[in-house]
Amino acid sequence: MKLSKEGASPFFTRIGLARGGVFIVALIVMPQLFPQHWIWNMMFFTVLYAAMSVSWNLIGGFAGYPSLGHAAFFGIGAYAMAAIFKSTHLLTNGWQPFFIMPLIGLGCAILALPIGLIAMRTRADVFAIVTITLLFVAQTLGYNLKSLTGGAQGAGLSRAPFRLDIFEQPFYFAAVSLLLLAMGIAYFITRTKLGMALTSIRADEDKARGVGVRTTAVKVMAFAVSVGITGMAGGIWAYYLGFIYPQFAFDPLITIAIVLMTFLGGRATVWGPVLGAAILMPAQQLLAYYVGGSQIYLIAYASIFLLIMLLLPRGILPTVLSKRRLASLAKQGNMSGISSTPAITGGSNS
Amino acid sequence: MSVLLSVDNLTKKFGELTAVDACSFTVEKGSITALIGPNGSGKTTVFNLITGYLPSDSGKVEFAGTSIQGQSPGTLYRKGLTRTFQQARVFADLTVQENLVVAGGGSWKNLFGRRITADDRARASELLDEFKLSHVADLYASELSWGQRKLLEFASVLMSKPRLVLLDEPTAGVNPILIETMATHIRSYNAAGVTFLIVEHDMSFVMRVCDPVIVLDRGKTIAAGDPLTVQSDPRVLDAYLGD
Amino acid sequence: MHTLIQGVILGVLTGGVYALMASGQTLIFGVMKVVNLAQGAFVIASAYLAFTLFTQFGIDPLVAVLITTPLMFGIGVVGHWLFLRPLRREDATELSILITFALALLVEGILSITYHTTYRSINTSYANKAFDIGGFSVSAVRLYGFIVSCALLVLLYVILQKTRFGRAIRATVQNPQSATLLGVDSNRVKAYGFGLGIATAAASGSIYGLLFPFNSGSHYDLISRLLSVVVLGGLGSIGGAVLAGVIIGVVSSVAAVTWSPTWSEMTFFVVLLLVLLIRPQGMFGRVERGAL
User: Does a structural domain hold residue C211?
Assistant: First the structure.
């Protein structure tokens, strides 16, 4: 992290803009180089999960409130999409559902407000309790509100009328837009006082409240935005598959996957969750291809997570960045007073 | 002089234990008031009650003439009443400079403004220079020594230009040179119009810096007055040496 | 009226089992300030163990408790040593939640590969027996399960009140710092406390397996209920957990007979939200503020 010594901290740095530009170009070009369907499919899931990890990071990483209920909002977004298909006839050229997505996101965010206000009144552990319970409740509703969800038999959406040889592409680019939105928000947070407020909440919430940080508003807002993006991801996913079942829409695996991606890459950073998703999602797809069976993922995800917590608790990016930072401090002869490394490298890294 | 803070019959029980027992005292505007007493006499609890970290069972607290009963620490902070903690609490994952900026208060609109504005930086660097923390401005607070953390916490509560600062043992675990630095800062900010209420164990510090002194014992105010009078008060000697 | 009373009886009997599970859960929170999301998974693992011991060796599930309890205690102690002890203090609360969640999924994954995901139930000779008490039918498994739960709760109470180890645990729950000053080895207390908490899952698992059909995913349902019970009772309060277990057992059972069994599963969540809204510290919890 480099701060200029005078004036306001910048919104954009040249290197940050360059990095963002290269990333966007790569997202557009990369799948064209390997135009097989399975590559598009893998890229779609990687980008979708990256978007969800970045959004989980807003509340779980920056604010230190580990949500276990994001899969609930993913499923709610998915079923909202299914419900919209059931009640209206949107499909003319296939693009309309993507434009409805923001409404689904807004709906999820509004739903999250009362839950956040109640669950975040006391402590992070109570928040975890409420969110995991919420996941179970949503799952039960998914099975039992048959008129809305079709129960265990699943709910069908009309198949998107895209040409088969480019079928994945619209979904992929929808996911890319969502990822860029999520990263944009995360970046904005690191560059404004919101980021400092969230970091202070994670570090010491009582103290933060005591120095005038508007803790409740900031964390509830972060939660709402976070699940809003997750709900939209659910909507895109449902439209892509065309047929959804409660056990996949409200799958705890989704939660553990995005948490794991965030921790692997580095929480409370803009790029960490993207890095984590880029490593884990292709790995999972390959595992699925060679082994199959979701119980294997369960064991694999859980064991990798436990290993990361023990061996690399700060994640890849913060570990690398703090090494670089210490080296540059040593070069400046500015080591006086360093007594330990920071708990996590907070703030911006781009 | 006028009264800035008045505490009237404040009471707090933890189960069987009465930590603060009908405690009353006032803090004059512009003073450096000490709150002393033996271990467990309820000093920190009084701080927690005044600053809204704990709800009181009964009693009244008035700040600048209005009741501040039941108000949150954040609200009080914005009104100009702020505090430090015995174990200096700073935000480990923020840099030293950011620790100051985040404590600078700020409006809703500011939340969406730049992380550090030119104004923030100017105000922070003033304090950093004064507290001799400029050379560590870009280090994370977790990388500071204990004494530096105490200084940082003190400096950060001054960011909001408070009227009353409650210091909880500013010299605890701090080396003698830094104790003098603390005393100097307290005096100079007091001269600039900030009122202090200080919990402190170091009696020589209290005698040199504070006037008046309030003595608590078992949650009750047992004496108040200038340092010399209080020092020779038999009830105070009893409280410290007695039983 | 008859169905209502029947529902209450059923609720009390089921609530006793919840009380046992939740007492372990809340004990772990009290000692370690860790919300153990794997408690449900360990209950289901114990149910599978009881299932195997019954089908392979013909051991009655209520007798199998004698085997599964020490085993679960050991798993708890090792699990604490391996995963929870290494956490650094600053973010221990946050990370321990995620770690126990990962543990729960690990256990679920292992169970679903070992036993597949079809629902199992343990069909003992007394599985369909019922007693007629004053015109109300009380099934034998529920009654036996309730009796065993109560016996174990009494045993837990005795351990906590009468033994040195129990006193160390209670001291740690009340004030970890002064407990350390009084010479309590906090790491050992935490490890054994965690083990003891997980050990209650063993017996609960046997009883749960007798009462309900289960599969590897059942732990989500279970953990949601347990967490609601523990929050209602007040995190860290064992007496609170026992009372809350019975209350929630009765409420959901009455909701099941008077309304619909499906929606009775929602009562947990409703209770949880209401508690957090009205009295976030639960019935017997202490108000904690980080400032102190």
Answer: yes
**CB count, 10 Å around CB of A338?**
17
Domain count for chain A, please give it. Answer: 1
Assigned domain for A36 exists: yes
Query: Angle of helix A193-210 relative to helix A168-191, nearest 10 degrees?
Result: 50
- Residue A341 near residue B143, CB atoms below 8 Å: yes
Which candidate, B218, A32, C251, places its Cα nearest to that of B235? B218
Q: Name, of A36-45, A176-185, A280-289, A310-319, the range with top average pLDDT.
A: A176-185
pLDDT in tens, B140-180: 999 999 889 999 999 999 998 999 999 999 988 888 888 99
Beta strands in chain A (DSSP E): 155-156, 243-244
Q: Does A204 sit within 8 Å of C290, measured CB to CB? A: yes
Whether A237 contacts A155, CB under 8 Å: no
pLDDT of A294 over the 70 cut: no
Interface with chain B: mutation pick from A211, A216, A322, highest number of B CBs within 10 Å: A211
Question: Sign of torsion, CA B110 B111 B117 B123?
Answer: positive
Q: What does residue B131 show for φ and ψ, rounded to 5 degrees?
A: -90, 10
Indicate whether A70 belongs to any domain.
yes
Please, which residues bridge with residue B215 across strands? Answer: B36, B223
| Total of domains in chain C | 1
In a domain, C241, yes or no: no
Residue B112 tokens read as 């969406």
The total of other beta-carbon atoms located within 10 Å of residue A154's CB is 17
**Is beta strand B213-217 parallel, antiparallel or unpaired with respect to B17-28?**
unpaired
Domain boundaries, position C127:
15-218
Residues of chain A with Cβ-Cβ distance to B102 below 8 Å are: 193, 196-197, 200, 208, 211, 213
Among B51, B115, B136, the residue with its CB nearest the CB of A210 is B51
Calculate how close chain C gets to B57, using CA atoms only, in Å: 14
Cα–Cα distance for residue pair B156/B100, rounded to 1 Å: 5
As a whole number of Å, the CA-based R_g of chain C is 19
Read off the pLDDT band of A198 (50, 70, 90): very high
**Predicted pLDDT at A350:** 37
Q: Domains plus CATH for chain B?
A: 3-91+163-241 (3.40.50.300)
What is the rounded CA–CA span in Å between residue C160 and residue C167?
Answer: 6
Strand ranges inside chain B, DSSP E? 3-14, 17-28, 32-36, 58-63, 66-67, 81-83, 164-168, 195-199, 213-217, 220-225
Q: Which pLDDT value is given to residue A349?
A: 37
Reduce the DSSP state of residue C248 to 3 states and report it: helix
Q: State chain C's mean pLDDT as an integer.
A: 86
Separation CA A8–CA A3 (nearest Å): 9
Share of chain A above pLDDT 90, in %: 50
CB atoms under 10 Å from CB of C237, counted, come to 24
Residue A186 within a domain: yes
3-state secondary structure of B202: coil
**Residue C170 resides in a domain:** yes
For the record, the structure tokens of A41 come out as 């499919």
Q: Residue C290 pLDDT > 80, yes or no?
A: no
Q: Residue A190 sits in which domain range?
A: 14-252
Q: State pTM to two decimals.
A: 0.90
DSSP A74-120: HHHHHHHHHHHHHHS---SSS-HHHHHHHHHHHHHHHHHHHHHHHHT
A252 contacts C102? CB cut-off 8 A: no
Q: Is A16 exposed, middle or buried (0-12, 13-18, 19+ CB in 10 A)?
A: middle
Would C149 be classed as within a structural domain? yes
Q: For the beta carbon of residue C244, count every other beta carbon within 10 angstroms.
A: 28
Backbone angles phi, psi at B164, to 5 degrees: -130, 125
| Residue A334 placed within a domain | no
Minimum CA–CA partner of A146 in chain C = C262
